Task: structure prediction
Amino acid sequence: QVHVVESGGGLVQPGGSLRLSCAASGSIFSINAMGWYRQAPGKQREWLTIMSVGGGTNYADSVKGRFTISRDSAKNTIFLQMNSLKAEDTAVYYCNEFPPPLNGYWGQGTQVTVSS
Result:
């Protein structure tokens, strides 16, 4: 079971940037693809981006060109660089394995609020 702790969220103005971090337990990146997800109020959790074991990436259309996933395998940490933030990016952001585990585990997430 992978355990994760997300951090780095906060309040940012439209057009601003944030960098989220996700510290994962164990040396998981050699065996697990990891992704970032988010859940806005009243909406279902949605997938944003994935990094494969080999380092390949893919992005949802809603964040392509604005968000970038990266990792530091030595520190068992993945990052989400978010640029050109919009009000509709306001959500709780989560990292997790991709696909998410069948046992329903999720970390506590980190709140991102985009508002002037």
